[in-house]
Amino acid sequence: MYWGTSRWSAMEIMEAYSVARQFNLIPPVCEQAEYHLFQREKVETQLPELYHKIGVGSMTWSPLACGLITGKYADTIPEKIQSFLQRISLAKRESSWCLRSEGVSSVLLGVSNCDQLIENLGSIQVRFYVD
Fold first, then answer.
1. If we measure between CA atoms, which residue out of 53, 64, 62 comes closest to residue 28?
2. Residue 102 has pLDDT above 50, yes or no
3. Taking every annotated instance into account, which residue ranges of this chain make up the domain NADP-dependent oxidoreductase (predicted)?
4. What 3-state DSSP class applies to 61?
5. Average pLDDT in the 86-106 region?
């Protein structure tokens, strides 16, 4: 029996952890947070302290920025952003990039068909080497 939070601030998670410990209850074990190339602050700057202090991990969602990174909305995206996305964005790379983050325990994928699922699952085969 474990539980987690969704879209809570680091302060709210720490408060829930403290109250749970005070009353001998099960504390939260994960935070569900949006995490992708354009939404990085919470997972990379706000939550790392919790990873180390109390062991809370992240279960992230939207590694493809709700389809923005896939080119799904190419007709409505400014050309400058499109060229940037073309250089970096394969679904495999983006999902793998999310997985490599220290506190990320899992990545939730949203797919519309089996081909998309297979492509996204390929991300576990992609490795990023960080100096």
1. 53
2. yes
3. 2-127
4. strand
5. 69
Q: Tell me the C-alpha distance between 56 and 28, whole Å.
A: 7
Q: What is the pTM of this model?
A: 0.72
* Percent of the chain that is helix, strand, coil (3-state, to 5): 50, 15, 35
Q: What is the CA radius of gyration of the chain?
A: 17
Residue type, 35: Y
∠ CA 74-80-81, rounded to 5°? 55
Are 67 and 61 contacting, i.e. CB atoms less than 8 angstroms apart? no
- Can you tell me which residue has the tokens 């576990």? 124
| Rounded CA separation 103/116 (Å) | 25
Provide the residue type at 128 as one letter: F
Q: What is the DSSP letter of 46?
A: I
* Under 8 Å between Cβ of 128 and 102: no
Integer Cα distance of 16 and 105 in angstroms: 20
